[in-house]
Amino acid sequence: MSPSIGVPSVHELVKENITEVPDRYIHSTSNIDYDQYHQSDNSTADYKIPVIDVESLLFGDSVLADSELEKLDSACQHWGFFQVVNHGISSLLIEKLKSEIHSLFQLPPEDKKKIWQEPGDMEGFGQHFVVSDDQKLDWSDVFYIKALPTNLRNPQLFARMPLVLREALEVYSLRLKNLTMALLGKMAKALKMDSNEMEELFNDCSQNIKMNYYPPCPKPQQVIGISPHSDAGALTIVLQLNETEGLQIRKDGKWLPVKPIPGALIVNIGDMIEVTQ
């Protein structure tokens, strides 16, 4: 990802009790059709994002494992998204991480400045892909770090992060890598690939963690949390801090809300996997 120019914090803006959205955050209807993101329940009721039971996929008997593998294969081919349950990452770790992420975005401005993006860098607080001062902005704050491999980390940034968050991320990033490689191995099997070939392709790839915060908006119909996009990497694994149906995916010309399952993670097939296929 290319560096961005600095932008103000949306969270700090909201704390001023604004009643109107600043012009720079308003996406005109010529660029964004608000109605397409808020289709009626009747138009999307038949769409249910696949759910994969990782424990059954990896450790179930042959019948159960094969059934989950077929579901995984179908999810990858027809959806590009699925949720995973029984994924092996402890609920205690996840709840701890959620709490620390929430606390991170509640830090006072003077503490946030210590871990703000440096000029020409992507890591820290800020937004991405902002290249001009008149560019429309997303209604969100972002904190972004490179987590793995450790030699790619920004040691100064890591050292300035809250200690408990840093410790939770250390463990979580390793658990995510294990889960990612397990899923990629099963995808290889579904694609009739050698699992070792898939591991060679992705085992040493970088793992980046992006935390998004969407403050309340006085006129939400005028803004976009994150502009429509595809993810460039292999897999994106999404952990939602609550059960709000904010994430949407596009299928068959419709924007579908993702209904989070408590304890589940959401997996997005990235562009690199599509190229591999």
TrEMBL record:
Sorted UniProt keywords: Iron, Metal-binding, Oxidoreductase
Domain named Fe2OG dioxygenase: residues: 201-277
Coiled coil regions in record: none
SUPFAM superfamilies: Clavaminate synthase-like
Annotated signal sequence range: none
GO molecular function: metal ion binding; oxidoreductase activity
Domain of life: Eukaryota
Alphabetical list of InterPro entries matching this protein: DIOX_N, IPNS-like_FE2OG_OXY, IPNS-like_sf, Oxoglu/Fe-dep_dioxygenase_dom, Plant_2OG-oxidoreductases
Keyword Cell membrane: no
Pfam (any one): DIOX_N
Claim: Oxidoreductase is one of the keywords in the record: yes
Similarity section: Belongs to the iron/ascorbate-dependent oxidoreductase family.
Annotated protein name in UniProt: Fe2OG dioxygenase domain-containing protein
